[in-house]
Amino acid sequence: MNAPLPPIEDLVACPHCDALHHLPSLGENERAFCARCGSLMVAPRARSFLQVLSLAFSAMILMAAAVFFPFLSISSHGFGHASSVFEVAMAFSDSWYAPLSLAVLMVIVALPALRFAGLIYTLWPLANGHPPWRHAAFVFRMVEESQPWSMAEIFVIGTAVALVKIGGLASISFGPAFWAFCCLIIVNVLKNAYMSKSAIWEAIGKG
Question: What parts of the sequence cross the membrane (predicted)?
Answer without folding.
Answer: 49-76, 96-127, 172-190
